[in-house]
Every structure is written in structure tokens, then in C-alpha cells.
Amino acid sequence: MERLIGKYCKIVTKEPGEERACVITGTLEDVDYKDGFILVDSTQGLGCLRINTIVAIKPGHKKGHDKKKIKDDDEAIVGIGTLIIFIAMILVAAVAASVIIQTSETLQQRAQTVGTQTIREVSSGIVIDSVTGFTNVDRTRIEYLAILARPRAGSKDIDLNLTTVSVLHDSLNILQLNPSLVVSVNTDNASIFDTPVESGSSFKIIDNLTSGTYGIVAVHDADESITSTGGMNRGDRVMILVNLTAVIPDSNGLETRDRIYGRIQPETGASGVYDSIAPATYTERIVDLW
Fold first, then answer.
1. In the chain, domain spans
2. C-beta separation of 145 from 215 below 8 A
3. Is residue 69 over pLDDT 70?
4. Residue 189 DSSP SS3
5. CA–CA separation, 244 vs 255, rounded Å?
6. Mind listing the pLDDT tens digit for each residue in 102-120?
7. Nearest to 270 by CA among 115, 150, 158, 124
8. Distance separating alpha carbons of residues 24 and 37, to the nearest angstrom
9. What is the per-residue pLDDT for 188?
């Protein structure tokens, strides 16, 4: 047994009077022949076995196998941890990529919207071609204005129902379209200032204008968009009629050498601006102001 000292052994013992043998595994630490014991370091700790109860002793390698198994287990634990970190990195990358994609899509849509609105703001709008006045019978003051307007080149359709006309004299008046005062220039073949509200009517457009409303005579409306929906598109021309006797009540209109200015502001796009000074005398009832 001295050769087995320090080695891992499997020891079979059988106590007197017992029918079955018992197996103990551990490291054989020492052999005491004098007292008849051997010292064994097992998983239960250091202990003694009587030599006369030993049936057999067999050296083994279980201790080495256990170390290898523990090492393999350690490597498995490290591998699982690495796998968890790897999966977490993939999830974080996927979330980050999703956020980046959503953000880029939102920015792209926003940039597209801003670009479209900017192009519309820059290209759309109204141009004023002329401003004409209509005096009273005595030719002492201008009672009505007729502003010839059209869309800018490349402009989108303009909704006249949402287009305002400002008139600045002694006070600022903001006029909106009266949808019932939109007619074609050919109605009863009348002049602009004598255009009736509807064919055959004795009521003129100018007679129904107030300090807060304006009327429209469609000078050119090939697709009848102005008279049907109030929409002005490419190629259209309109005469915007304003009642100055209502807008300038103190003098019942625009007197000679007097100044009047304002703008036509569509819902989207650039506005058309007019700035007119009345002549020293009104030689005719129709006066070219701008």
C-alpha cells in the first residue's frame, strides 16, 4: 500500500458481520501498520479505515477527470456569457438601426414637404397687371376700382375664396370674396363696371359690394374654373371690383391727387401689390391708375 500513498484510490471495505461491502474513494494519505489504520482524504474529509476491513484497493483517475470536467464547465459558462453578450449587441444594433431608419425616413418626408411648400411659396402667387378707376358722374372722385390680376408664371392653382384684398387709405380694410358676385365678362355683354350679378338682372356687381367684400369678373376663364369653383389657374385673368365709397366713407371715394395702395394676398404664394396716386383731374369716368 505504500506505493499507493498520495494517489487517488477506490477502497472496498467490509466490516465484520456485514453482508455487503462499502466503497470509499479518496486520496490515500498514509498507512499505519502499527495501529492498523490508513488515512484517507475523501470528499467527506480526512478519515481512518481499519486495515483488516479492507477488501481491495484500486488506484483511479477520477480526480483528474473531475478537474477536466470542471474546466469544460468553466469554458461552457464563458461561452454562454459570450453568446448572451453577442445576442445583446445584435439586439442593440437592430434597435439602433431601426431608430436610424425611422429617423431618416421622417427627415426625408419632412424635407420633401418643406421643399414642396418652399417651391410653391416661391413660384405661386398673383401678379397685378393694371388698376382702373371709375368715377362718379361729376368726375370728382373715384367710386370703384377694377384690379386686373393673373397667376404668376408656374403658379399652382389659386383659390380666390381664400384670397384677400387689402386697401390702405386713411384706414386699412381687408376684403374677402363674395361668392355670389363672381360672373363672366360676357354676361349680357356689359362693361366691367356695369356687369350684372346674373344674366338679365338689373342689379350690378358694384351695387352689391361692401367695405368687407369684393366681386370678380372673369376676363379669361377657358375651363370656367373661376365661375364654377372660384379657382384661378394658368392663363386665367380676373377683374377684382372694389367699392371705394364703402371703403373710404369720409370722402365717398378717392379724390384727385390722393393715394391708395394695398395688396392681393392668396392663400399660398407671393402677393400682388399695387400703389396708385390719382391724377390732378379726372377727364374721363374711366381712369387708368396703374
1. 2-64, 126-288
2. no
3. no
4. helix
5. 10
6. 888 888 888 877 777 676 6
7. 124
8. 14
9. 80
Report the run of H or E that residue 15 belongs to, with start and end: none
**What mean pLDDT is predicted for residues 183-199?**
86
Q: What is the pLDDT of residue 76?
A: 54
Residue 65 in grid coordinates: 477527470
Topology at the third CATH level for domain 2-64: SH3 type barrels. (2.30.30)
Residue written as grid cell 394695398: 262
The whole-number pLDDT of residue 122 equals 67
Strand (E) positions, the chain? 8-13, 22-32, 37-42, 45-50, 54-59, 126-135, 141-151, 158-159, 164-168, 172-184, 213-220, 231-232, 237-243, 254-255, 259-265, 272-277, 286-288
Q: Residue 216's pLDDT band (boundaries 50, 70, 90)? A: very high
Supply the pTM of this predicted model.
Answer: 0.59
Output the nine-digit C-alpha cell for 157: 392653382
What values do phi and psi take at 87, rounded to 5? -65, -40
